[in-house]
From TrEMBL, chain A:
The lineage of its organism: Eukaryota, Viridiplantae, Streptophyta, Embryophyta, Tracheophyta. It is a multi-pass membrane protein. InterPro entries: MFS, MFS_trans_sf, NO3_transporter. GO terms for biological process: nitrate assimilation; nitrate transmembrane transport. Gene3D superfamilies: MFS general substrate transporter like domains (1.20.1250.20). It comes from the Eukaryota. This is Major facilitator superfamily (MFS) profile domain-containing protein. It comes from Eruca vesicaria subsp. sativa.
TrEMBL record, chain B:
Residues 1-22 form the signal peptide. Keywords: Cell membrane, Membrane, Nitrate assimilation, Signal, Transmembrane, Transmembrane helix. This is High-affinity nitrate transporter. The keyword Cell membrane applies. One of its GO terms (biological process) is nitrate assimilation. It comes from the Eukaryota. It comes from Eruca vesicaria subsp. sativa. PANTHER family: HIGH-AFFINITY NITRATE TRANSPORTER (PTHR34806:SF7), HIGH-AFFINITY NITRATE TRANSPORTER 3.2 (PTHR34806). Belongs to the NAR2 family.
Amino acid sequence: MAHHNEDNEGSIGTSMHGVTAREQVFSFSAHEGEDVPSSRAVRFDEPTAKFALPVDSEHRATVFRPFSFAKPHMRAFHLGWISFFTCFISTFAAAPLVPIIRDNLDLTKSDIGNAGVASVSGAIFSRLAMGAVCDLLGARYGTAFLLMLSAPTVFSMSFVSDAGGYLSVRFMIGFCLATFVSCQYWTSVMFNGKIIGLVNGCAGGWGDMGGGVTQLLMPMVFHVIKLAGATPFTAWRIAFFVPGFLQIIMGILVLTLGQDLPDGNLSTLQKRGDVSKDKFSKVFWYALRNYRTYVLFLLYGFSMGIEMTINNVISEYFFDRFQLELHTAGMIAASFGMANFFARPFGGYASDISARFFGMRGRLWTLWILQTLGGLFCVWLGRATSLPIAILAMMLFSVGVQAACGAIYGIVPFVSRRSLGIISGLTGAGGNFGSGLTQLIFFSSSRFHTADGLSLMGIMGMIFTLLVAFIHFPQWGSMFFGPTSDELKSKEEHYYAREWTEEEKQQGLHEGSLKFAENSRSERGRKAALDGSSHSTQPENENSGNV
Amino acid sequence: MAIHNILFASLLICLLIQSSHGATKERLFSDLEKSALEVTATPSRVGEVLAAGIDKLSITWKVSSTATKEPEFKAIKVKLCYAPASQVDRPWRKTENELFKDKSCPHKISSWSYDPAVKTAQSFDYTLERDIPTGTYFVRTYAVDAKDHEVAFGQSTNENKTTNLFSVQAISGRHKSLDIASVCFSVFSVLALFVFFVNEKRKAKIEQSK
């Protein structure tokens, strides 16, 4: 893997380190011959033998051992995904308790729906800002800041006495979903590019599981507190202390056990010296110019977005429609989110396998099939009138949309090289946007029964998924059309190099993009293998069940 | 072929189960005998909003002389029901004709076994439970038969549920001790973060100056 020094390493916020799986992320410039202060000296002095895992020249781990807690790599992985998991628990903690909360606060369906929208909206902005924060403070403090500054918002549920308060608190808690970015940033700094797909996929999927676990955890905690003697309207407030404590504990663990970089912490190592920085405005501009950014934004809105909406509404739906106990409804709702454990990595893996045979076209079809099936089963879930059918439909639906999430991030890395971080971040934000939108339209008013809302949401999802057909790469084609016949434009190099101006090319700033273009030839599918592009040592075919 | 038979048989069984479920579940509210019981519910403070957990209702019920299904009565169930004003934009409190789906009377007040020999009005006091939500209510009594199926009812309001309604204000569920604990932990969280931050910056400065 080449030294990609320049790209996305520049001004604050451009890096969005590792929000997706495939970028070569270096926190330090590895400019040979440039006078970079002590960081370089530190790196080359440390013998690599002192790490528990085999590492590369940047001291990033080259193997992934999920059962290990070795410092610093696996520890960073576990601290990262558990922090993200904890934040998912906090954000969706209210959902399974809504049947109690709505009686205590005299909420209407609109109040509940609007609070659900608010709970996912904050993260649209915090996720975009998080890349910059991690650049400034490092992954450790980025994560810890989110965890420990949003813990007070979780505790403040004890003060809530009306619909307005409920909405504000849920809005504020929602900001902590930006731990998604800090978690991916941290793993990308710690793990080599060859395995980063699997690592990020596991971190993302296991973190998302928090949305499922909370549906089990909160009703159980509530039940225990009631048994201890509290009346229901007080017990649910006490129950919120549990996610609050978890956040504080994780924050302290992150600060004490974690390490920003393989060689130490950001503040004790000196920061890099003069490196040609990439300008945030340019990176942002190229992201906005690329129409695929918007397509992916909407597509993720109807996979991750729908998933988050379901986290908010499904427990109440089962409670009301099938007259279940609170914890039974919670258990069923939990299995939706828990499917993330394997469903999301599976989606990325399926994308990679299809790319091996059919190239980018395979990835696009895989995405379309998974997301459409997800929408179809969502429609079925809304139609189901008996409990076993509803559960079956829900499980199939969960695998469909969650695998689609994984499949989307199998495509994101190829959309742009220069603006990779921003596009990944925007895609992630699209998920929150889609969730807010679907909750607003279908679950915030009495216009639709919740069951009809689910079916209509599934139909809307299937319609928007048709947008996949519009993702076209001149060098690889799209779902229905082949690559362009133009000699020049059908080269990967042309696509990735056109994000740089002539002056920048003359300065050699686009070297990284060219190297990436060479490696991405595998997206041509079988033909690329037959063409003998053997010098791409590690094509983008790794297990990429990512974010 | 054996597989086909098994699948067909299981499909039949499922359908049978569904339909048999349906048979018992299709008992309708409109089939019940109306005004078989005369019910009055008098709040302890008339014309004011009652406080849950504190205020009382004085409830009396009596079997009406016009009740035709009276021989079937085995027990009397008294329930607190939502008035239409409290059902607006709250589909989880909806009134449905099918009795098993109806969600408008979720709060049980009490249950009495019916003694046909006693013909006078029965009355008792009910203190509003602490988990009663804020809303407007009336009282309904169902008479159930030996199979625990409702056969008749009476309510403290008229058919359109517009008269004799009373309002309840729920407890807030908040406690001073909870508020204090919440503030303490929040402050701890923010302080701990800044202590770590400042400490590390200080250590980094010392490292640098070395």
